[in-house]
Design brief:
Length: 346
Amino acid sequence: MLFFLLLRCRKNRKWRPPQAAIIPNYHLPMRSFEVKNRTSAEDIKALRLITAIKTPYLPDGRFDLEAYDDLVNMQIVNGAEGMIVGGTTGEGQLMSWDEHIMLIGHTVNCFGASVKVIGNTGSNSTREAIHATEQGFAVGMHAALHINPYYGKTSLEGLISHFDSVLSMGPTIIYNVPSRTGQDIPPRVIHTMAQSPNLAGVKECVGNDRVEHYTGNGIVVWSGNDDQCHDARWNHGATGVISVTSNLVPGMMRELMFGGKNPSLNTKLFPLIEWLFQEPNPIPLNTALAQLGVVRPVFRLPYVPLPQEKRAEFVNLVNQIGRENFVGEKDVQVLDDDDFILVDRY
């Protein structure tokens, strides 16, 4: 009888969710107001030439920090104002997060007083993006680069929630490259994110019509396409470029971004840019830097060097443009296939 009375009482009660399922939001940002070289979104917005820096390797696949330091120094001496560390070009997709944060911290420690360090701490996992961004700012990076969640993708509301989760931590550049992520970040998302004072701007790879849409609405844009960056800068209002080509010819890319309209220089560079993107970046860039003797000819798989006939084309391009315009001091070489080391475990 008692059992039926209890059962009747339970039926008359309003159901409530179990308290264990309600998790209070106790998360606090892991931030310090004593971060070395602290900067603001406004400082990032002023940058015109940002190099997406290559990560060189030792024969066993670990980072070659001596070669990396030399390459960064060449960028600074030739006028680059910012570095994307561990981006697509720097092969962040092949790094552990430990490697990633170490390289960001190393770059800040060695070069943070001379150049703005923008760490690629984006991920298709919001949890990972938050964790990496906290760590990146903790080791002193000036800004974060964030891509939209790739492969699994998400809804537009999911994109907004993802970016909103990381924007509060510090100056941020949002990176739109649908050819790699499989999903465009539409203007609606960017306009929503632009309400945050931490949005420094957008690295836009869709094209110059999209660039002009944003710049016309007061949003800072860097061209993500080297072949379009001259027109983006001088005809469509872009602040500058986040460049792959500047790894090789930083002085010429600086002139392209700082020197006013220069269609003749743009035309001169176009064959090199076209060569650099004949295969997915960073395959040609890695090959070219090895041919210039600036980095060891070491590739982390799945990247492999360009074939010999393409390497011969690069030698011709260097001779046409002028060896003095390229980084490094060694003579450019074709290199033999056996000179390259392909690393699958590192």
